[in-house]
Amino acid sequence: MRILIVDDEPAMHESYRQCLSPAPRAEAGLQAMAEELFGASNDDAPAPRFDLVHAMQGHEAVDLVAAATGG
Length: 71
Known about the structure:
Helices cover 54% and strands 14% of the residues.
């Protein structure tokens, strides 16, 4: 899934990146803690993966959407 992030603050882009694209090691650690607290999960579905696209301004976002949709 592709997500377009539009904000003029670089720190916000970094926050979204950290939330939506956690490091693999962090995922493994969280999974281990969850299994310890709640038991093993029967859900073998992989964690969602996001393709983050960044724009600093609205006009840049419009251009990115147009390019992605062929318009």
